Amino acid sequence: MIAYCGLNCFKCDAYLATQQDSDSKREETAQKWSRLYRVEIKPEQINCDGCKSDGRRFFHCNMCDIRRCCISKEVDNCAVCEDYICETLSGFIKLAPEAGKALEKLRS
Ligand code: SF4
Ligand code: SF4
Predict the structure, then answer these.
(1) Upper half-sphere CA count for residue 99 (Cβ side, 13 Å)
(2) Considering the entire predicted model, what is its pTM?
(3) Whose CA is nearest to atom 4 of ligand 1?
(4) Residues linked to residue 4 through DSSP beta bridges, in sequence order
(5) Backbone angles phi, psi at 8, to 5 degrees
(6) Closest ligand 1 atom to 57 CA
(7) pLDDT band at 58 (very low <50, low <70, confident <90, very high)
(8) Atom 3, ligand 2: which residue's CA is nearest?
């Protein structure tokens, strides 16, 4: 499941913790992401069925500008956007190069 931004939700720690319903993985992911993103993330916030699912979504992904932009433009992901690579996406790719690689692959 490739998210709008190019991240692979199937490989995401929050997705895996949720699908395995593992509280220890939620705890581990919350600690890791709190350190990484320098915000307090609680284990109970680690619940996500993926960027494009109708189910639960991690709050940060719910508020994501890229996600909102893709939905408003009615594109499947940034790879098929006429404004690829915009400034917002470019900033994100610097933080998550794997998403950029996935989008490039989708475009080729
Ligand atoms: S939408 Fe959910 S599964 Fe996808 S990257 Fe965000 S937190 Fe992970
Ligand atoms: S404008 Fe940027 S964030 Fe929006 S869909 Fe296009 S590439 Fe993605």
Answers:
(1) 20
(2) 0.90
(3) 9
(4) none
(5) -95, 105
(6) 2
(7) very high
(8) 66
Measured in degrees and rounded to the nearest 5, phi and psi for residue 52 equal: -105, 10
For residue 2, which amino acid is it? I
Contacts of 87 (CB under 8 A, 6+ apart): none
Cβ(50)–Cβ(18) below 8 Å:
no
Residue with tokens 């319903």: 21
Length of the chain: 108
Alpha helices in the chain (DSSP H): 13-19, 23-37, 59-62, 65-73, 87-95, 97-107
Amino acid at site 66: I
What are the structural domain ranges in the chain? 9-107
